[in-house]
Specification:
This protein is 29% helix and 21% strand. By secondary structure, it is of the alpha/beta class. The two termini are 30 Å apart.
Length: 196
């Protein structure tokens, strides 16, 4: 884990001053950060007015906690205000409970945005087809190869699949139509059905 933390420190530094989501040629820009290196997935952190808007909270709660520790150290501690999961693969939602719980969502402290039918799709893919997907992942990510220079170096997308606690929450907001707008921590989002 220490090696992964060193890797993320470098990654956050390299990717720490990216800009996206221009609001017009003269309007302000939303700053985003990308946290990677802990897990096969990346987690995007977007600065809202008062906290973070997190997109795709990694695969496991343990990797999200480790990533947020490094983010807090290097970028400053900010509360999480919204979480977006782009689709129902575990590397896009599995770490959510490191950031929020049912009380946070019910109280409105944190919003969780996901595509319409997200929970049903998650169950369909990860429970019903879970064994087949797990078998496919073993071959796709090289989990069964020895970790050597001639075996499994990494997974191509990232250093490797995270092993840990995969979690799930029910979205507070769903994306059901292209052009749907949401205001998340002062930022206007125009969402696209099937962006996920």
């Amino acid at each position: 884990m220490q090696l992964a933390q060193q890797h993320l420190r470098q990654f956050v530094t390299i990717w720490g001053d990216q800009f996206c989501c221009s609001r017009g040629s003269r309007g302000p820009q939303v700053r985003n950060k990308v946290a990677g290196g802990f897990d096969l997935a990346n987690m995007t952190l977007i600065e809202g007015d008062t906290g973070w808007i997190i997109v795709d909270p990694l695969t496991a709660t343990e990797t999200v906690r480790a990533a947020m520790k490094v983010v807090d150290e290097h970028l400053g501690k900010r509360p999480v205000k919204a979480i977006l999961s782009s689709h129902s693969h575990a590397d896009h939602f599995g770490g959510i409970r490191a950031l929020a719980n049912e009380e946070d969502l019910a109280s409105g402290k944190i919003r969780f945005v996901a595509p319409e039918n997200f929970v049903q799709e998650t169950a369909s893919e990860n429970v019903i087809a879970g064994n087949a997907m797990g078998r496919r992942a073993s071959y796709m990510f090289g989990n069964l190869l020895p970790s050597t220079t001639k075996g499994n170096v990494d997974s191509g997308l990232g250093k490797g699949v995270a092993f840990g606690t995969i979690s799930l929450l029910t979205p507070t907001d769903t994306i059901s139509a292209t052009g749907q707008k949401l205001v998340l921590d002062g930022q206007i989002w125009m969402l696209v059905e099937g962006f996920c």
